[in-house]
Design goal:
elongated; 6 helices; 2 strands; alpha+beta; 2 domains; two-stranded parallel ribbon; single chain
């Protein structure tokens, strides 16, 4: 049995109106086809990237040698994953770079 593109879209979005059987069928076919939704396209539709920007000040080598930063990033990463977010990490060495990076996020 065929399903419409809108049904597939609803399955990907985990819409409650779609039956469990239809969701299982679509997910099975997606797996067979090695299909993965385009995150960028999804973010355009939803107007949300689900990306958290983390700006690390100072030189990368120095920042990551301090025990605080890996622990902090691990905590942010774990919570982000649980909430369905990804992390975008940026290292800056000047205030100007930091301001520009904030604008670009």
């Amino acid at each position: 049995t065929k399903v419409s593109a809108s049904t597939v879209s609803r399955v990907i979005a985990d819409h409650p109106r779609i039956s469990v059987a239809t969701k299982e069928k679509v997910h099975r076919i997606m797996k067979e086809l090695n299909y993965h939704p385009n995150i960028i396209a999804r973010s355009l539709v939803n107007r949300s990237t689900k990306i958290i920007g983390v700006i690390v000040p100072g030189m990368a080598e120095q920042s990551f040698q301090h025990p605080f930063f890996p622990e902090l990033l691990g905590g942010i990463g774990s919570m982000a994953y649980e909430m369905g977010y990804k992390i975008l990490l940026s290292n800056v060495s000047t205030v100007e770079e930091e301001k520009q990076t904030v604008k670009e996020f």
